[in-house]
Structure formats: structure tokens, C-alpha cells
Design brief:
mainly alpha
Length: 101
Amino acid sequence: MIRCKNGALYTGIATDYLQRWWQHYSGTGAKYVRNVGFEKPAFLQQFPDKSAAMQEENYIKRQDKMYKEEMVKSDLNLLNKHPEMPRLEWIRKEWTGEPLW
């Protein structure tokens, strides 16, 4: 999930989350995010395969904002468990395809 400038949490899946975040940040991602603006990465979770990721994405999209906000704060969020993961400061430096770790 990414937090948009209007406070919304946009949910999607990607095989390369860094590239996808860069696309949203640079204005070449989803139309919704282009219209309301990218603020920062908010939630990251890994899945064993695309099918599992799509099932979870569909489930999350049906939930209310309060549920999504709790997910952002939860231990499921890899951004909370691994502070060394790239944050907005890294994305602003222009994504190069090479992670920092």
C-alpha cells in the first residue's frame, strides 16, 4: 500500500515493489495515484506467488480504511519490521533498480 497525498491508502501488487513505488512517485503509475499524488510507502508484505498476492489484494480492497490503517501499524508490515528498507528519501534520489541493502 502507498499513502496518497489525500490520505487514501492505495493497494496494489507488484513483482518489483521498488520499481512500482518509483513509478507512482514519478507520476507514471496508476491513474488514481497520478491524480491525487504519492506521499510515501505505507505497507509492504511478501507472498509466495502472484495468486496469493492477488487474493490478499482483493481482500484488502474490500476492507474499510480503519482496517487498512491497522495493517499499516501491524507486524505484518515489512516496513515496520525492517527499518533499513528503502523509504521515501531513497525513492526521491531516483530509483536505479539497485536496492540499497
